[in-house]
């Protein structure tokens, strides 16, 4: 990304963009879904703090505080006019992103890139969620397949459960399933049970 | 005035996160926007805010006037030195 655009991007955006640039190399025409549970929440804290003081709001922060700002900058930097999406779906953000990707694939797009990124919820809201313990980003290219290595994802109603104690944020548990070769992973959250399976 | 120009260059670099740009890289007479340094309209707003905070200058909404004040670092220094209410 040109330095004149990159200068406006914070840590979270930078790691998301790094993942996007790296993964996109193999399919530069693939439409992109940016998925983040909390997004760039630090900017919202900054803006609300300025508003409460009251101080004038930073126009740069304001322009970048929307959830699709990182994807938008990326598309501008690449001069790319293909489809871009920005998703936030709480604990189910990865599943929502993959569902959206499946929609695009079934429309006939050969490959879709999904970029997932999050960082810890900033003070003073950190007590609302400590699920994201560290900043991270990953990206992958998806294509439709019925072959031996195909991944199957479906969703069923399940009795509401309290969140499972987990060693990693949900998106990284999904990534672990994707790269580990494990045959299945179930992700129960709220009233739903997402079932990830390989060779299904 | 030279000192104020240097100060404004540092303010521009710091406020707009101009990576890898040093005060000496900025020609005080060169355009700040589009050509020259290549800043855009969001930068203009951000810079206006920083000038207001640092020097107490208030920018009118008259875009013609502002265009003149924001033409270059030198023009900004002229504007600040004649309108500042904070030292």
From TrEMBL, chain B:
Lineage, top ranks: Bacteria, Pseudomonadati, Myxococcota, Myxococcia, Myxococcales
User: Entry's Gene3D superfamilies?
Assistant: ACP-like
Q: Residues in domain Carrier? A: 2-84
Q: Which organism is it from?
A: Corallococcus interemptor
Q: Which domain of life is it from?
A: Bacteria
Supply the name of the protein. Answer: Acyl carrier protein
